[in-house]
TrEMBL record:
InterPro entries xref list: ABC/ECF_trnsptr_transmembrane
GO cellular component: plasma membrane
Membrane topology of the entry: Multi-pass membrane protein
TM annotation in the entry: 38-55, 61-81, 88-110, 130-147, 168-186, 255-275
Species of the source: Thermacetogenium phaeum (strain ATCC BAA-254 / DSM 26808 / PB)
Protein name as annotated: ABC-type cobalt import system, permease component
Key words of the record: Membrane, Transmembrane, Transmembrane helix
Principal location listed in the UniProt entry: membrane
PANTHER family assigned to the protein according to its UniProt record, in alphabetical order: PROTEIN ABCI12, CHLOROPLASTIC
Protein localization: Membrane
């Protein structure tokens, strides 16, 4: 009985991990990976603004094709996209279906009566749903492409060299470096609690409350301990004594990078004006 329950819980856990995959940096040597982090940040910002502002489904479709081209240039193929963005596509399809059934404007495309349920689709609902679905997929997909192709350390150092106070930059680097540490510690705490006979798998409210009690509290205590050790180490090394810092790996902007930072917003602005008119 316990074996069957544990097997079912393990399958549920595997399903959840597959449905909500982790978003992490993927180390490759692609043209997209080699782009300067600040240039990619500007591209992400301009792309997201254009996605939000573009009023037509045709413009959203072109932006989606552009996004898929960048995924291909980054060496992240269809298998990678289907595995990592599965939930995004499913949720986008749900938005599309809700929009079709909710909007009753335009030309009637089809009308079905299924017993007491009356379903109809209209042209504005179809085009509006397609636009909203693509807008959602484009924003989330571009954000993940940025995360998957940008080394967080390079991004933090580039922001600091661009003018971000190095205290904030150090906070960003430290947070990014502690993510895998806390994830490993969470797994260790979970395995230790399960070894004591405490059931931690499953999606029931009771198991969620038990997870908060037996996982979150030890993890918070461990995090506070690590933060205390880090603070003592920083004070012993006189962190913040000097107003400026030098960098072991400078992230200087080349001439082409500076041109790209200026050209990218102009290109997306022209794209928006083309479809807005």
């Amino acid at each position: 009985m316990n074996f069957n329950r544990n097997t079912a819980s393990g399958r549920t856990s595997s399903l959840v991990k597959g449905f909500f995959p982790g978003l992490t940096y993927v180390d490759k040597r692609s043209p997209v990976h080699r782009i300067h982090p600040l240039v990619k940040l500007v591209m992400l910002f301009c792309f997201s603004l254009t996605v939000i502002a573009t009023p037509s489904w045709a413009g959203e479709t072109i932006l989606f094709c552009l996004l898929m081209i960048f995924y291909a240039l980054a060496g992240l193929g269809p298998v990678f996209i289907s595995r990592k963005l599965r939930f995004i596509f499913i949720f986008g399809l749900l938005i599309f279906l809700v929009q079709i059934l909710a909007v009753k404007e335009g030309i009637l495309l089809w009308d079905i009566q299924l017993g007491p349920v009356h379903l109809s689709a209209w042209s504005k609902g179809l085009l509006g749903g397609l636009s909203m679905m693509l807008r959602f997929v484009n924003i989330i997909g571009s954000s993940y492409l940025f995360v998957a192709t940008t080394d967080p350390n390079r991004l933090a150092y580039a922001l600091m060299q661009a003018g971000l106070p190095y205290r904030f930059g150090f906070m960003l680097v430290t947070a990014l470096r502690f993510i895998p540490v806390f994830y490993l510690e969470l797994e260790q705490v979970k395995n230790a609690q399960m070894a004591k006979g405490i059931e931690m798998e499953g999606l029931s409210p009771r198991n969620l409350l038990r997870a908060v009690r037996y996982l979150l509290v030890p993890l918070v205590i461990s995090a506070l301990s690590k933060v205390d050790v880090l603070a003592i180490s920083m004070e012993s090394r006189a962190f913040g004594l000097y107003p400026t810092r030098t960098y072991m790996h400078p992230q200087d902007l080349s001439g082409s990078d500076r041109v790209a930072i200026i050209a990218v917003p102009l290109i997306f602005l022209l794209f928006y004006l083309l479809f807005a008119s």
